[in-house]
Specification:
The structure is a single chain. This protein has 276 residues and is of the alpha/beta class. It has 2 domains: 203 residues, Spore Coat Polysaccharide Biosynthesis Protein SpsA, Chain A, CATH 3.90.550; 71 residues. Helix content is 42%, strand content 21%. It is built from 8 helices and 9 strands. Strands 1, 2, 3, 4, 5, 6, 7, 8 and 9 form a 9-stranded mixed sheet that branches. Helix 2 links the parallel strand 2 and strand 3. Helix 6 packs parallel to helix 7 and helix 7 runs antiparallel to helix 8. It is globular.
Amino acid sequence: MIPVSVVIPCYRCAGTIERAVTSAAHQTQRPAEVILIDDASCDATVGVLKSIKNKYGSWIRIVELSVNLGAASTRNAGWNLASQPFVAFLDADDSWHPEKLRVQYEFMRDNPSIAVSGHQSMVLGYTDKMPQHINFRPVVAEINPISLIFKGAFSTPSVMLKRDIKFRFYEGKRYAEDAYLWQVIAFAGLRIVRIESCLAFIHKELYGAGGLSGNMWKMEVSELSNFLSLRRSGHISVWMMMAAFAFSLAKYTRRLGIQCVRYGLALFSSKAHKNC
């Protein structure tokens, strides 16, 4: 095993959580522990988590929150309980390539100046199986604070970080909380990198699908509030904040257009099927 704690926030994920845990269990270098934080689910999730724990034993730790707090607070709860010097995040409806932890941990172990690392991810269908053959490239991109204003560097299920970083996800924030944390860490002068290999699989569309990413306008408002918080803390200028606002709203408009096209195509396909 390697000294990594895996934190998985769980909310109404009875149908997907076993796939996520299995991808952690099948790592070529297994993490020391997996912490499952149930965010007051109102379905069969807790029962599934207990079944998974029965399968894997003490390697699995379960925490049941009594009140739904959102992904930020749920991840923080797991992070604060982590016993290992490195923490990796995985979402309950996503999965990892079997070599993910080995590649990422060895890289961070050999480069102790790095506080946070992410890597490339691949979007798959809900039921698609992950590809086993990935092109591992020993290429790493340095992530600077300004770049994080205009573009996300990586998805949260790709992140591994040092447990002792003093920053945490913004408590109670339910949208764009991960992007804000990476921005705060970067502006604090800590080193962030992206490994240019695809080691995580997102089993849903990045936006416009079910779950948090489906609430596009709420996500947009939260992203704009991130920029305002960075301005208030003195990390960016007024002009930088205005540029970030304009760019973000342009991206939102484009995504909304894509969603309208998808909806139109789905509606047309449904009508054509009925006519057949």
